[in-house]
Specification:
The chain contains two helices and nine strands. It is mostly beta strands. InterPro entries: LysW.
């Protein structure tokens, strides 16, 4: 078994799960994102699926509609266009979706 790269659904940072850790991993186990501290529960192993159980960084996060990069936006930007730090695409986030995601945590 090889090391596996996973992308945190909260902050978008990539972490590596070592092969020896993957061997002992079971559904229901919880991983912590090294970048933002979010707790990610293992939903399934094949393929590896993770679900956010506790939020890490607090704030509003959106996914860029062009490249899919997840990044934080501030409340002051509500209703205004934001630019993706990854690809530079400008768009107005759908704040109803942002608030729904925030309520899940």
């Amino acid at each position: 078994m090889e090391d596996l790269e996973i992308t945190c659904p909260v902050c978008g940072e990539v972490s590596v799960v070592l092969a020896e850790d993957l061997e002992g991993l079971e559904a229901g186990d919880v991983l912590e994102c090294e970048a933002c501290g979010a707790f990610l529960e293992v939903v399934s192993l094949d393929p590896l699926e993770l679900e956010v159980t506790e939020g890490g960084l607090e704030g509003f996060f959106v996914d860029c509609p062009r490249c899919g990069y997840t990044f934080e936006v501030s409340e002051e930007e509500e209703g205004q266009a934001v630019s993706c730090p990854e690809c530079g695409f400008s768009f107005v986030p759908d704040w109803s979706e942002v608030e729904e995601e925030d309520e899940e945590w």
